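Supplementary Methods. Inverse-folding protocol.

Structures were first reduced to a discrete structure-token string of length 570. This string, shown here, constituted the complete conditioning input.
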């Protein structure tokens, strides 16, 4: 590729729209351009990276016996209605009507479509197991598109689906996909962590996410790992071993005046109590009405746990007017005693906490010495709190939880028979009995993986692409393209690398050297070859490794073999 023939519109200024460093760099390096919120155009260099990521994923899927197909992007609504996801996926589903008024969906995922296909074709256990996949554009109407390609409305994904006759066979299929994922991400230069995760709108029995750990704001996923065992879990599902509640004599409850004191920490200071003795009563609006969630004063409500518990698709904090109507008090003074007309869900720590303090459902008043069972009866008791670093692991009971942030690049779902039952997709087993397929669903974000690599690998000067997914292998930079000797050497190198099957970018612009060097570091191709007057006098070229910024020289005639040796060390 020649720079003069390519389309690489680099920028000097940081775009105001970009929050993450990876988003900034992809824009500045001329890799992507925004069309609308959450919708991007992929420019030539980034397109090459996406094709390489997709090919690595394709090869690892094929290695595990998966077979590639292509399914429609446009889905009839009826099939989504059959599974119930027309309603449960919620507002992220992009819906439209054709000229005849029929409802359609732009596919965010293809569980319905693949099950529709298989139920009409596979009838016997002898045809199983099977694994079908595609690499395709997907659509989700994110409520707040942000972070560039990490939370977009249109993106490229590999989605695969397994069909098995038995649980034992499914476990083998699932493990093959786990192996394929680790291999694919490793080949992309990305170390990943597999963690338990929430099944979300996908449903099914269980799920895992593959996370690239990053130390930047791009780490939108919070995960917890144990210092002693292999427990690894997304914060949506994380729990910990709870300490035994304090042993105290049950005291009579007492209403106390707390003028203009509402926040848990403020109430604790006012009453000279530890914040752990406070209980926050949070009121949420759900699809099925309002619920009150009770957590200790030093804890936060885990909205994913709470949504799953009450079976709600959408959930938001109740507004001030709703809180006043429900509690008969200003916002900030809600409490469980006397609260009626809604479900009260107490966290497991709250249910055993003696003599706690909460709002009195009356302005400027709280109640001391509340005890569950005596003073109020929760509708349900469940773990609805956010896990925190340093707590004891719930799995082994010994290690401490460590919190890390990362970017989700892949997921796997054990679907069980959720879709095969709802879509009546069955096969005949060895005894001639009709049984639903046992299914798995597996996704890798192609565009997410590429941006995650930028978020993980960059410096103050620009992108540092892992060599396997870099848009090109070597960047030839003649300092003065207008110099006949430099131009001749540059052209000779360009031909030699192409003939050797090495992908070069020749910066044949008649630009200042400083501009070329800055652009070279910005776009992040793994190896740069600088052609300058000083080197040519000695018959040598300067090789610069983008990752380490280490420079070395080699004779012009040995450029290709020298590059090959250098490539092995990167």
């Amino acid at each position: 590729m020649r720079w003069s023939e390519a389309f690489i519109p680099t920028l000097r200024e940081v775009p105001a729209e970009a929050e993450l460093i990876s988003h900034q760099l992809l824009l500045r390096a001329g890799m992507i351009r925004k069309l609308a919120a959450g919708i991007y155009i992929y420019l030539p260099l980034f397109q090459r990276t996406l094709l390489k990521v997709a090919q690595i994923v394709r090869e690892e899927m094929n290695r595990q016996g998966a077979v590639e197909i292509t399914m429609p992007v446009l889905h009839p609504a009826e099939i989504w209605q059959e599974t119930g996801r027309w309603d449960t996926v919620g507002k992220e589903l992009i819906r439209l009507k054709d000229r005849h008024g029929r409802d359609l969906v732009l596919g965010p995922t293809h569980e319905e479509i693949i099950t529709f296909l298989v139920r009409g074709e596979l009838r016997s256990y002898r045809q199983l197991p099977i694994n079908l996949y595609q690499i395709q554009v997907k659509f989700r109407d994110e409520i707040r598109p942000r972070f560039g390609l990490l939370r977009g409305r249109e993106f490229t994904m590999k989605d695969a689906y397994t069909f098995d006759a038995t649980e034992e066979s499914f476990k083998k299929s699932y493990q093959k996909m786990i192996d394929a994922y680790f291999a694919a991400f490793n080949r992309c230069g990305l170390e990943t962590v597999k963690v338990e995760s929430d099944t979300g709108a996908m449903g099914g029995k269980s799920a895992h996410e593959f996370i690239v750990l990053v130390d930047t704001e791009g780490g939108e996923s919070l995960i917890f790992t144990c210092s002693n065992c292999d427990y690894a879990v997304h914060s949506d599902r994380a729990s910990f071993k709870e300490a035994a509640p304090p042993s105290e004599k049950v005291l009579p409850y007492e209403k106390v005046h707390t003028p203009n004191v509402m926040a848990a920490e403020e109430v604790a200071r006012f009453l000279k109590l530890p914040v752990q003795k406070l209980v926050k009563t949070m009121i949420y609006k759900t699809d099925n009405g309002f619920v009150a969630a009770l957590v200790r004063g030093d804890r936060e409500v885990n909205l994913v746990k709470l949504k799953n518990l009450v079976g709600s698709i959408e959930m938001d904090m109740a507004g001030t007017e709703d809180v006043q109507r429900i509690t008969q008090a200003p916002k900030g003074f809600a409490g469980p005693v006397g609260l009626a007309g809604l479900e009260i869900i107490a966290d497991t720590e709250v249910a055993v906490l003696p003599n706690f303090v909460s709002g009195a459902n009356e302005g400027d008043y709280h109640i001391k010495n509340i005890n569950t069972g005596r003073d109020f009866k929760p509708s349900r008791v469940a773990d609805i709190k956010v896990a925190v670093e340093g707590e004891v692991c719930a799995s082994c009971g010994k290690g401490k939880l460590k919190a890390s942030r990362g970017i989700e690049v892949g997921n796997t779902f054990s679907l069980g028979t959720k879709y095969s039952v709802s879509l009546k997709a069955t096969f005949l087993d060895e005894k001639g009995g009709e049984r639903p397929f046992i299914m798995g669903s597996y996704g890798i974000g192609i565009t997410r993986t590429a941006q995650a690599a930028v978020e993980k690998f960059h410096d103050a000067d620009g992108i540092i692409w892992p060599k396997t997914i870099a848009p090109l292998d070597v960047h030839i930079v003649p300092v003065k393209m207008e110099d006949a000797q430099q131009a001749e050497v540059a052209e000779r190198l360009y031909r030699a690398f192409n003939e050797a099957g090495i992908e070069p970018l020749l910066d044949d612009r008649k630009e200042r050297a400083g501009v070329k060097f800055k652009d070279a570091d910005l776009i992040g191709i793994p190896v740069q070859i600088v052609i300058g007057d000083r080197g040519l006098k000695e018959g040598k070229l300067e090789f610069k490794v983008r990752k380490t910024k280490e420079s070395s020289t080699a004779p012009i005639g040995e450029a290709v073999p020298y590059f090959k040796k250098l490539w092995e060390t990167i």
